[in-house]
Amino acid sequence: MSALTFRYEVPGDDFTRAGEASSDVKRKLKQLGYSPEAVRKVAIAMYEGEINMVIHAGGGEAVVEMDPEEIRVTLRDQGPGIPDVEKAMQKGWSTAPDTVRNLGFGAGMGLPNIKKYTDELRIETEVGVGTTLYMKVFA
Amino acid sequence: MTVKEAAQILEAEVLVGENLDVEIKTACGSDMMSDVLAFVKDQALLLTGLCNPQVIRTAEMMDMRCVVFVRGKEVDPEILELARSRDIIVLKTKYRMFTACGLLYSGGLRGESGSL
Ligand SMILES: Nc1ncnc2c1ncn2[C@@H]1O[C@H](COP(=O)(O)OP(=O)(O)O)[C@@H](O)[C@H]1O
Ligand SMILES: [Mg+2]
Questions:
Q1: How far apart are CA A8 and CA A63, in angstroms?
Q2: Backbone angles phi, psi at B81, to 5 degrees
Q3: Which residue, A13, A106, A114, B32, is the most exposed by fewest CB within 10 angstroms?
């Protein structure tokens, strides 16, 4: 069986819609019969990444490939990039303004949480160019 | 306890949900969805003072069954619509966070499963 591929635009100007892509992916994975564990891992990791694209990068695109063995999620944005990835990966480290914290996000737990819930994670980022997250979860 | 019992304890208004005979063992309370996503394990009920669609999304991603809005917050129809479409029960209580959590705890609900 070849991979099923889905593409989503993540709008950067509407916080209320952040998470729509992750929600759709979660439902698809459930329907396809992936284990609840795998579904939850993908859902949480992708949702954190999607929120990041909206609050830090002005939106972007998501590509999700579903294989029998693994689920791959690529989140790509043309935002400001991350100057120090090692720092960004630390628990509690955040550049989010209070406006974001008042919305319930910006605790600096997103990237560490993505790391925790994925089996593989690679971050490509360049300041002024953008950021791409490659995540993999085994089925 | 069931969501129905939780609703009675909190004297809550049911904003979304027909069948409240849903069993819940553990709950959590937070206004930071970041913390819920990072620290919550298998709690089925979320109490929050935050009122935006991301509360429902967070509950959805975490496989939670019920969201309780505390301090009698007005909840947007848009939020309720989202909850309905995701099969998440929504309650609203006049109690504040501390009191609402305390009432449920006294009623037998716990935090993380397997610990007190
Ligand atoms: N897509 C992104 N584009 C630019 N910066 C990002 C992106 N994702 C994360 N960051 C940076 O990494 C930091 C840590 O991210 P994260 O752990 O998700 O915490 P939070 O989103 O709560 O700030 C952010 O505060 C931000 O500075
Ligand atoms: Mg984040």
A1: 6
A2: -60, -45
A3: A13
SS3 B98: helix
Alpha-carbon distance of A116 to A114, in angstroms, equals 5
Digit-coded pLDDT (tens) for B85-112: 999 999 999 999 999 999 999 999 988 7
- State the distance from the centre of ligand 1 to the C-alpha of A43, rounded, in angstroms: 18
Measured in angstroms, how far is the CA atom of residue A16 from the centroid of ligand 2? 15
ipTM of the complex: 0.94
What is the predicted pLDDT for the residue at B116? 44
Q: Which CATH number is A9's domain given?
A: 3.30.565.10
**B48-83 tens-digit pLDDT:** 999 999 999 999 999 999 999 999 889 999 999 999
- Point out which residues pair with A31 in neighbouring strands: none
A29 lines ligand 1 (CB under 6 A): no
The answer on pLDDT for A61 being more than 70 is yes
The pLDDT assigned to A1 comes to 59
The C-alpha atoms of residue A3 and residue B83 are separated, in whole angstroms, by: 31
Q: What is the pLDDT of residue B73?
A: 83
Query: A103: domain range?
Result: 4-138
Q: Which atom of ligand 1 is nearest to the CA of A94?
A: 25
Which residue has its alpha carbon closest to ligand 1 atom 9?
A: A52
Going from the N-terminus, what domains does chain B have, and what CATH number goes with each? Answer: 3-106 (3.40.1390.20)
Dihedral sign from CA coordinates of B7, B11, B12, B18: positive
By Cβ distance, the residue of B34, B53, B86 closest to A105 is B34
Strands A70-77 and A59-66: antiparallel
